[in-house]
Amino acid sequence: MERIRTRLKAHLERAYAPYSGFPVVALIEAEGEEFLGVNVENAAYPLSQCAERNAVAAMVLAGKRRLQRVHIYSPKGPIPPCGGCRQVLYEFGGAEAEVVLHGPQGYETWTLGDLLPRAFGPKDL
């Protein structure tokens, strides 16, 4: 866990969070590989992108479709992913995927099922 935490912290400065001052880094473990994402804010707030969704985009671009674990780090953490990110993570991980929330003082581990009970997913279509 310490290797992941060190890697997350090393990429924190790449987050673009000039408006909120709330940088976030996400790392997804998927099919034996790791994919990073940082939050990217925009002056038009609705156009901002969360770190988790940017990490999912990197995973999909690499041809992966199933995540096993996502790590989320913020110096203000541990913080859970927003509702939209929970839904996107569920699409690719399902209820059993692990979510590890890192902060300066440590980490907490949850499942997506814990964070998004009764989720809507591909099986519901």
TrEMBL record:
Residue sites binding Zn(2+) per the record: 50, 82, 85
Cofactor(s) listed: Zn(2+)
GO cellular component, as recorded: cytosol
Binding site for substrate: 39-45
Domain annotation CMP/dCMP-type deaminase: ranges: 1-123
Biological processes annotated in GO: nucleobase-containing small molecule metabolic process; pyrimidine-containing compound metabolic process
Highest taxon of the lineage: Bacteria
Keyword Isomerase: no
EC number(s) recorded for this UniProt protein: 3.5.4.5
Active-site feature positions: 52
Keywords attached to this entry: Hydrolase, Metal-binding, Zinc
Entry keyword Electron transport: no
Catalyses which reaction(s): cytidine + H2O + H(+) = uridine + NH4(+); 2'-deoxycytidine + H2O + H(+) = 2'-deoxyuridine + NH4(+)
One Pfam family hit: dCMP_cyt_deam_1
Reported function: This enzyme scavenges exogenous and endogenous cytidine and 2'-deoxycytidine for UMP synthesis.
Family to which the UniProt record says this protein belongs: Belongs to the cytidine and deoxycytidylate deaminase family.
Matches recorded under NCBIfam families: cyt_deam_tetra, PRK05578.1
Protein name as annotated: Cytidine deaminase
Source organism (scientific name): Thermus oshimai JL-2
